[in-house]
Amino acid sequence: xxxxxxxxxxxxxxxxxxxxxxxxxxxxxxxxxxxxxxxxxxxxxxxxxxxxxxxxxxxxxxxxxxxxxxxxxxxxxxxxxxxxxxxxxxxxxxxxxxxxxxxxxxxxxxxxxxxxxxxxxxxxxxxxxxxxxxxxxxxxxxxxxxxxxxxxxxxxxxxxxxxxxxxxxxxxxxxxxxxxxxxxxxxxxxxxxxxxxxxxxxxxxxxxxxxxxxxxxxxxxxxxxxxxxxxxxxxxxxxxxxxxxxxxxxxxxxxxxxxxxxxxxxxxxxxxxxxxxxxxxxxxxxxxxxxxxxxxxxxxxxxxxxxxxxxxxxxxxxxxxxxxxxxxxxxxxxxxxxxxxxxxxxxxxxxxxxxxxxxxxxxxxxxxxxxxxxxxxxxxxxxxxxxxxxxxxxxxxxxxxxxxxxxxxxxxxxxxxxxxxxxxxxxxxxxxxxxxxxxxxxxxxxxxxxxxxxxxxxxxxxxxxxxxxxxxxxxxxxxxxxxxxxxxxxxxxxxxxxxxxxxxxxxxxxxxxxxxxxxxxxxxxxxxxxxxxxxxxxxxxxxxxxxxxxxxxxxxxxxxxxxxxxxxxxxxxxxxxxxxxxxxxxxxxxxxxxxxxxxxxxxxxxxxxxxxxxxxxxxxxxxxxxxxxxxxxxxxxxxxxxxxxxxxxxxxxxxxxxxxxxxxxxxxxxxxxxxxxxxxxxxxxxxxxxxxxxxxxxxxxxxxxxxxxxxxxxxxxxxxxxxxxxxxxxxxxxxxxxxxxxxxxxxxxxxxxxxxxxxxxxxxxxxxxxxxxxxxxx
Length: 778
Prior knowledge:
alpha+beta, Immunoglobulin-like, TIM Barrel, 4 domains
């Protein structure tokens, strides 16, 4: 065995190759030939199949190969290719029911045995009816509305995961036809899949996203509010929308335009321009500037987003990149034949009619020598910061199309949304050095690396909620849907998502056009979201490191609770919040919970009726022990310095939270330019001890000083408080507001009876060496 590869020939004549990718990850391939050409997801750099710290031992016998790592064991029957996967303790996780297959006559496929109580999760946005996929069968094919983003990844409650490494149309049957069998198969392509071993679902997400890519961290302003204007809006009306957000005191960061911004509606070409009447730009200011609507938006604190649709042949650029890499040091353009240029006359062509020397293409949209993103650079230069990638035409079949890389649509169709997101993401990154906000309806395995998604043109109700949860169970973190602004429940769910957007499209969903009650509720939720941005952004950093999504389906958060699988109307929002939407009752898992609105305490497990105040739209609970950082009120990200940050604490046992901060804009966070602040709380019999460690790490623009406005929930007034051993005096209460802004005069603390909370201010050690320790004595 060389380079952690094991290869042999089965009795059927097919060739099997096994790669130990990581201690918990195995790649298994079966082919009629022995050269094992890489499939599209690896050829185009979507998946990372490189070996990672995989030390293994192999007992390679004549009939059986036994591979062992520190985390798993894989046993292969060399005559048939049947495989058994075990954990490090030798406990069976899964095994083939019949020999796998991969040939021109049958296509490819494999079957695994399922245990009686085994539950499976994943597959992305391919159904909005369920979370647990045992008993489910699906065709893995991107389709408008029905399956915007199928992802061929499953993870089992028994501690194993499966990733099918193909873009070919295929199907998965998880105990639907035969209760104890998981079967996947395709008519074309070769068998190529990954098996993962892990103790928890979180472990399996970590391993899967190590292959398929970790979720990106969006620019921090993208976690605020996005508002998409009415499709008929012109520049003046867009500016009026922006002004109204500021006049109403509703925080918002991104304003978007639908296809009406183009001179030709729904322009798929690379020749698009601004609509000359709606969005007139003086010809002497082609790059924008302070006098144009770009400058006006910037001064108001807004970023600009444009709607796009694509039917471009993206495969040509991917192949060109591969050739450039292979020909490094030679002709950077690679083969000139693909570009369609004039190649010179043949010596027997006496007439030499140059008009007949060029190829003819049925695809009249694609410029064969030009990347799709190239035509968008002028808009980004003018000031565009985000792009919305509509489902048209990326989610539609192209049954008669032969793509430039030689693929037919059966192989290219599922791949297309990933290539579009990838080329948009990398194009913006290379042009600006900044993180893009690319959001798309379509997707497939790996989408989390390049783009955020929204649940397509399906509204913001209960089914889009299930879509977001299934995405999270498949390694994708930055998900959203069109907010339903006319109902309290729609606002409640719409603002408590990884990112939030209101899409007016053909309608009038402008918040200032709501009635008084709904407008007040919209403002309340928008301000709550912006206070929670450091909490949400920290969860995004956790997702980028581990694959754990920002909103978490209950089976992911509480996998051992038998009720979790059926909880389609609630989820964990980060570690600390439990959100219930579109329901009049909520199930509280084991532990202590505090109603965020009423401050009432509950002990789970139990189902309780939702007590929703008139100013809110749904139930919101906080896990006891939560530590939640909060920002001061602001109209947009960056409007105010965050030298002062709130810390809202719900003491219970021992708990902790890590606040992640970076410059919010560049990719330097990937190089470690991140500040971390660890906050710990310990509830003792006669005291509460809160410890705030000094910030570690640096990033450009990091505040030199930091103070903490602390709000600690307590049913009783303490007898005294000390900071680093010094007694803190009690002060007269200045104000009572339900946020983390401390209402005290000078140094000291107050007890707010209406909030049942202690309020005080603490300063970070100037040298950033010493812990701030606060002791609240009962």
